[in-house]
Structure formats: structure tokens, C-alpha cells
Amino acid sequence: MEATVKRVLVNGAGGFIGGHLVKRLKAEGCWVRAVDIKRHEFTQPPADEFIQGDLRNPELVQAAVSGIAEVYQLAADMGGAGYIFTGEHDAVVMHNSSTINLNTLEFGTRSGVKRFFYSSSACIYPEYNQLDPDNPKCSEDSAYPAAPDSEYGWEKLFSERLYFAYMRNRGVEVRVARFHNIFGPEGTWQGGREKAPAALCRKIAEAPDGGEVEIWGDGKQTRSFLYIDECVEGVRRLMDSEFTGPVNIGSEEMVTIDRLAELIMEIAGKKLTIRHMPGPLGVRGRNSDNRLIAEKLGWTPSRPLREGLEKAYRWIEEQVRTL
After folding, report:
1. Which residues pair with 248 in a beta bridge?
2. In angstroms, rounded to a whole number, what is the distance separating the alpha carbons of residues 73 and 75?
3. Is 292 within 8 Å of 142 (Cβ atoms)?
4. For the whole model, what pTM was predicted?
5. Measured between alpha carbons, how far apart are the two ends of the chain, in Å?
6. Please, what's the largest Cα pairwise distance for the chain?
7. Continuous H helices in the chain
8. What homologous superfamily does CATH list for 7-182+225-249?
9. CA dist., res. 193 & res. 294, Å (int)
10. Which CATH superfamily is domain 187-223+254-284+304-321 in?
């Protein structure tokens, strides 16, 4: 007798990580329904069904979760530092993302969804543990006492608690991951919502050899960056495990933003001058702590940053060339 095909829903499939996740799930043989308020800018994820609509709308969510066994909830109002840290978008970020999560859980649970994946963020970690760029503390148990540096982080922390409350009270299974700066091809690279790797790839691709590249702050702030394929691998491993999370999905290869720019310049074969300028920054230092994911899943991301940057830069360079 033929095995039943697993029916899954990907919220946020018109976005960067969601689009890659749809491809992975289809490659594994799942039946995939995809939902987003917009179509994917750069590709057409191979979903069996794509619903273009607003997940803040209860009627749409009721239709989206019908007949679904597992939900991957990646939809959120988000962007890079230029969007999240100005303070101008706090109300819409919190309202939009909270509403999406409330709808997804309530109507998904009523519809009989068995398991939910929720994409949280390293932005939930307390600012007071990320003041030293060389020694940030981002272990999963350091989230409390809570003090995220943005309302985006506060909403993510609230929604983590929301998912676990539904798990306790409604009997559904939940898996929660905290993403650390995911990057790669087919992601936003211009317009104000792009993250640091994409922004720097664009600036360096556009700059003439011998020119300048602008960096917000003094360039000594630190981050780690995880290539998209390893992010999706971590998501799938977590979803199929017996561990609920929250767990970090990120790289432990921490670099300064200046060093990130230098790596991209090396890949591009360009010699540019870095010009530091005022701009929204976020925390001073952040790096994934992978002890828990190694313990619970027997796996950690291991690809070197440069390998992913080479792929991301070539893709963004092609986008710039074809503008």
C-alpha cells in the first residue's frame, strides 16, 4: 500500500528562507502549500499550491491550515538594521508578526495540525550580554531576564512563549529555533530591508575598483552568519527530532563587520577603502552558541563563512549587473 504523502504548510514562502525551505520539502517528497502576502522576487518555489494572501486575515489562515499535518511558520514583518532599529516601524512589526502567529496557532490547532515549527531569532537575547564584541553570550538559557535590543526581538520572545503555551494547553507539538543572520542567494539585497552580508555584497559589486564602501558604525561590531542550506538542514533536523527547543541555528564563526567586508572584497577581487559612518547598529556583538544543538541533534553547522559568501556574492553581482 502506498505511503501517505505528508501535507505541510510553509508560511512566508515568498521570502528568502521560506523559498529555500519549500524546495527542500518538495525534494523530500512532501505535498507543500505555500502562503505569503507577496510572490517570491527571485524564484518560483515549487509548491503544490501557492496562496497569495495576508496571514493577518483569519479567513485566509483557516483555509491555509485545512488538511495540513505540519506548519512551518516563517512569516514575519522584518528586515535588516535599517528597518528594525530605527524605531519607526515598531508598532507595525509587533502587530503584524503577533497577529500572524496568533492566527496560525489558533486556527492550525483547531484544524488538527499536529506539529508547528516557529522561526524565532537571536534578536531575543539580552542586550546586556552582547556589549562586548569579543565575548557575547547567546546560550539558549541566557534569554532571561529578558532585555532584547528591539521591539522585533520582544515580539519574537512573546511568540516563543505563545507556541509553548499552546503546546502545554492544547497538546500540539512545537519546535522553536532561534536563527542567527541567515544569508545566501535569492534573498533581499537592496531597498532597506536587506541584511549586512547582502548589503555589503551589493555595495562592493557596485563599487569601482579603488573606490569606497560605506559601513555603519566603527566596523568592530561582531556577528556570525549562516549559509541558507545549513539553516534549512537545521530546521529539518529539529522538526524531525524529539527536541522542542528553543535552540540556536547559527554559525560560531564570528567576524567583525570590517572583516566581513574584507572577505567579500577578496572574493570580488577589488581593493576598496572602508568609510565608517553613523547608522543603526543593533547589539555590539553576537555569535551563535552551538553546544545545545550539538547535544540534542548531534549536528552543528560546519561550512566556512567564505564558502557561503562566494555563492552569495556571485548571485548578487549578477543581480547588480542585470539591473
Report:
1. 178
2. 6
3. no
4. 0.95
5. 52
6. 65
7. 16-27, 58-65, 81-84, 90-111, 151-170, 196-206, 228-239, 257-268, 291-297, 305-321
8. NAD(P)-binding Rossmann-like Domain (3.40.50.720)
9. 31
10. UDP-galactose 4-epimerase, domain 1 (3.90.25.10)
Our CA angle for 202, 258, 200, nearest 5°, is 5
Q: Does this chain's domain 7-182+225-249 share its CATH topology with 187-223+254-284+304-321?
A: no
- pLDDT per position as a tens digit, 49-104: 999 999 999 999 999 999 999 999 999 987 666 777 778 889 999 999 999 999 99
Peptide bond into 145 cis (omega under 30): yes
Contact 226, 182 (CB under 8 A): yes
- C-alpha 270 chain-centroid distance: 29
Which residue out of 83, 118, 125, 152 is catalytically annotated?
152
204 band by pLDDT with thresholds 50, 70 and 90: very high
Nine-digit cell string for 303:
561550512
- The domain spans of the chain are 7-182+225-249, 187-223+254-284+304-321
Output the nine-digit C-alpha cell for 170: 492544547
Nearest-Å Rg of the Cα atoms of the chain is 19
User: Is-catalytic flag, 313?
Assistant: no
